[in-house]
Amino acid sequence: MKKNIDILIIGFALFSMFFGAGNLIFPPYIGMTSGTGWLTSFLGFVIADIGIILLSINAVARAGSYQNVAGKAGKKFGLSLEFIMMLCLGPILVVPRTAATTFEMSIAPLFGSFNPIVFSIIFFAITFTLTVRPTKVMDIIGKFLTPILLIALVFLIGKGVISPIGDLKSLSHSDGLFATGLTQGYQTMDALGIGGVAALIMSSFFNKGYVDKKENASLTLKASLVAGCGLILVYGGLTYLGATVSTIYDQSISQTALLINITHSLLGSTGTLLLGIVVAFACLTTAIGLTSVTAKYFEDVSNKKIKYEHIVTLICIFSAVVSNLGVDKIISIAVPILTVLYPVSIVLVLMSYFKNILTKNSTFKGAAYATLIVSILTVLDTLGLNLNFVHSLPFAELGFNWVLPAIIGGILGTFLFKDKVETIDKKVS
Questions:
Q1: How far is CA 2 from the centre of its chain?
Q2: Transmembrane ranges (predicted)?
């Protein structure tokens, strides 16, 4: 009984860590643009978002650490990849964005004259208070904060299901709906920093007395499945809400405006308040979880020479400053960096499932380097360098133009790089 409760609590906490404000606005827009075909696009979204999350957590749990996955491409390469990812996950991009999003979607609409600097100080003071004790982070999120978030979401979705705003729009063609959902799911980049997230889950189970590595890995997977099921249900409900207004709005409406209009149509001024609560708790739980993940990672990297509490303090102060740049500015900085890092991480995670076939680290190295090169060229193209050939690669329209180069790179790497049989992986006994 205790084990099931622990799985549920940590699963809830994991749900909240992945369910940020960005995840709140994607599904309604997908539903609105899909109409009666919303289930098709929703399936694509689930596969590319939740599917990658679950595969990544399972891969890290089985390997024992993210470095046992990424390190196959070279120890320095793996460490550098994770180091940069954790910087992005923490003080540089993702954590500051949670405060900026909360202010713009929750505070500004309700308290227009509220000072953003004062708000950022309050937001990160709360984050610091609830994060500074690492052994309690998952319990605080899973026992207290996630239930509030879920209750608000269930109320909003339930109202929309019982009393739909409008009718579902029948599409003259349904081609590309699955691909659209797949692309949107991939672009959430929710599996970024999965190594730190998986480590926090495994550490939380360890602190609860589950010290056996095999059992710990099993419980980690079960908790991630709880989180995955929660995400599927909430995403499904939000996608349906979007589909019910497909005859009212067109694709010119912004994702944020669509969500605001839906909540207002369902609940009037109460909807604005409810949306503010949902966004605030979604962002706060994400900020708490990711601050803890990042601080724990850098404490371990420094061999505990820098204390967890001190790192939490630095992250909160730095994030409070960066958050005042605003959501749009932070996103403009984040997208190019994440576009380079995310595909490399996915390639290494997927390849780890075939370790009995791909036995040489040189194969991983070739695939990782090829993916990195294509990702960098893709970003350079978006910045105006006109490298049009990156859009001609297979699956480029889905954002997966790195797939074929990764395969070719893996094959070439096997023969070009001198390597011994894979020895980095530490199996969970």
A1: 28
A2: 7-26, 38-57, 77-95, 107-132, 144-166, 186-207, 219-238, 273-298, 310-327, 333-354, 366-387, 399-417
